[in-house]
Amino acid sequence: MATLTSTPATPAQRRRRARPGRGPRGEQVAGYAFISPFFLVFAVFGLFPLLFTFWVSLHDWSLLGDRSWSGLGNYSKLLGDDHFWNALRNTLGIFVLATVPQLLLSLVLAQLLNQRLRARTLWRMGVLLPNITSIAAVGIIFTLLFARDFGLVNWLLGHVGVEPIAWQQHRWSSWLAISVMVDWRWTGYNALIFLAALQAVPRELYDAASIDGAGPVQQFRHITVPMLRPTIVFVTLVATIGGMQLFTEPLLFNSGANAITGGTTRQFQTLTMYVYEQAFTGQEFGYASSVAWVMFIVIALIGALNALLLRRLRGVQ
Amino acid sequence: MTLHTRARRTAAAAGLLLLAAAGLAGCGDDADGASGSDTTLRVSVFGNFGYEDLYKQFERDHPGVKIVETSEGDLGQYNTQLTQKIAAGSGAGDVVAIEEGQVVNFLQSADKFVNFQEHGSNDHKDQWLDWKYAQATTADGKDTIGLGTDVGGLAMCYRKDLFEQAGLPTDREQVAALWPTWDAFTQVGEQFQDAMGDDVHFIDSATNTYNSILMQTADETYFDHDNKLIIDSNPAVQNAWDTALAMSDAGISAKLKSFSNEWNAGFKNGAFATIACPAWMTSYIEEQAGDENAGKWDITTVPGGGGNWGGSFLAVPTVSKHQDLALELVDFLTSADGQMGAFEAVGNLPSNPTLYDTPALKDATNEYFSDAPIGQLFVAGASSLKPVYLGAKNQPVRDAVENAMRSAENGEKSSSEAWDTAVSDAEAAAG
Asked: Is Glycoprotein a UniProt keyword of this protein (chain A) (predicted)?
């Protein structure tokens, strides 16, 4: 009998032993069932479109007419496509121009909101207001503000002797105007995320710093920013994804005919606008899909870069 | 996405809002409130077709039928959505409007539309201008996917009050005599500009003038009848390009982008004195310039004779569940009475040549435009209309050319640089 007890356990028995407290099989199934809605939704709305887009990108696919297999033809065409590189450059340019001041500003704003203020809740809600405004309304209003002939910005500049600027016409001015739109909308939102993180910073650190004679600026640099590092990386990542997909603001900024080309010389056409133009004006469904996939890869690369940076920063700490 | 349909948009804002909702607005209009034997016919159009009263009449004649019209303000957005729905095979209305620039495109998928020839349209095709009927018919002549509503026609709208300030004649006959040709038109513009300084310009933009000239002189524009891109070898394109940019160089253009907010404001503020106007544009001008400018506008003939710019068709997608009723509605709306009704409502010029001799059309005037005899003016333009073939990729090519022209007009590029860009972008767009 002794030999029997010493028989090696079956794999199932071993598993049961390795995970004590595990319920019977029915509960396992229930567990998977409970989390399955996410995976089902992801499969239908995430994975399937992703894979289907890739499938389409391997074809010459006209929305209304023919479709034929072209392998990686669309991707090689893309490498030599000036309009694609132009759109990528615009997207990255507007992203940097919009995101850097935005994050700095929202950090400062969060710091301010974290002080003892009168009507504090009102202020905190106030900074979120731009974010809940309809994006189309924002686009229309800002386009009017930046209009060449009757716009408020040019009118104000006129008072200090600056000639009217055709904001849509130059690369720098259109990027600037679009960045202002993006910042107006997202600074308050990011400030609130920073505020939440700020409140998790122990007060004692600041008290100790004060005793050591550190001023507000030093405290901000040496306590607030380091403590917020993970939040900063998170916010940057979210801003990257949003920035790379910038669409409505530049589209509305180019009111009138041919809005999708982002200006006469495509000076502010972003990648998503290019995808849309190819798919629906040009009816090159396959080519548009390949641009979309490359965009996906670019975002993933930037995300990876962010993650690397985060790891390095942690290492430094 | 031609100017024509854009022009018809009711309000820029509405279109922009819809643009923003583009992703969501894909389809989903399931509002078939049918209860019992009631039938709802859905009609999708862009801008204003002037069909309100005609719908009521149709509903009276067909008890139990209810017509619901959805109108998209922005033609580009409308075309995008219609293309998506047709490609997807669901979601399109029972009756859909198709603009001239898009009809060639949809002929590629003629099987997605009811063939009017199977319902006897060939028996009464003299109801339309020959080329209008041909435009919506496949090359083999076997399939007609749309029946004509209006055609563009072409005239010149101008501001009498500004002409007076500049010391030019204001009477429409005398004004017409000033510009038999586009070169003469440019000279008048220079005279106007000298008198008026820089706050007001003679024309709204180079692109609008360019399109008028192009649609006036050409039998083919960017594509030949075999859909081969001929932009670089077609003298008509080159001529229209040079003439329009010469006007811009002469400093007579307000350089306003068509259908932009500033262009719209320009009508109200009197930023420009003339604009080439197809018939459908008159209601757009009236809407934008507003009541305070009533009577300041007038209409006269366009330099260089008639031309066509824009015009539409009605079609019935095969996915419609009420095809018979939809066909009946299309027949009614595109009949002589239907076209006349739309003309009276919003001034869209009929594509039915038998109407051109009727007093109702010939004697029509437009109060807003100083009682201009729009019937005579537009019919005169229409009778010398020449059909213009637009290829399936006309729209992207046209966008490329217009963009390049604007960059030259704005001084971002020289005329020859801009032309090179126009040609290379057109080649890329033509695929």
From this structure: no
Mutate to test the interface with A, among B2, B263, B399, B424 (most CBs of A within 10 A): B399
Optimal mutation site among B6, B17, B405, interface A, most CBs of chain A within 10 A: B17
Which of B403, B417, B421 is the mutation pick for testing A, counting most A CBs within 10 A?
B403
From chain B residues 18-37, the ones with a CB under 8 A of any chain A CB are: 19-21
How many CB atoms sit inside 10 A of residue B327's CB? 21
Q: What is the complex's ipTM, to 2 decimals?
A: 0.81
Residues on chain B touching A251 (C-beta within 8 angstroms): 19
Domain residue ranges of chain A, discontinuous segments joined by +: 77-313
Sheet architecture: strand order including B155-159: B201-203, B272-277, B155-159, B297-300
Residues 6+ apart with CB under 8 A from A287: A57, A60, A74, A77, A78, A278
Q: Which residues of B touch A140 (CB under 8 A)?
A: 13, 16, 261
Interatomic CA distance for residues A268 and A178, integer angstroms: 9
Q: Do B260 and A255 touch (CB under 8 A)?
A: yes
Distance CA A176, CA B298 (A): 41
Residues in chain B: 431
Q: Do B17 and A136 touch (CB under 8 A)?
A: yes
Share of chain B above pLDDT 90, in %: 68
Mean pLDDT in chain B? Answer: 88
Q: Does B309 touch chain A (CB under 8 A)?
A: no
Q: Give DSSP secondary structure letters for B358-416.
A: SHHHHT--BTTTTTB-HHHHHHHHHHT----B--TTHHHHHHHHHHHHHHHHTTSS-HH
pTM of structure: 0.83
Cα B5 from Cα B358, distance rounded (Å): 27
Could you report the per-residue pLDDT of B107-141, keeping only the tens digit for each?
Answer: 988 999 999 999 999 999 899 988 899 999 998 99
Enumerate the residues of chain B whose CB falls inside 8 A of the CB of residue A65.
108-109
Give residue B158's pLDDT. Answer: 97
Shortest Cα–Cα distance, B137 to chain A (Å): 16
Contact B307, B154 (CB under 8 A): yes
Q: Which domains does chain B have, with CATH numbers?
A: 39-151+311-363 (3.40.190.10), 152-308+379-430 (3.40.190.10)
Round to whole Å and give the CA distance between B20 and B259. 17
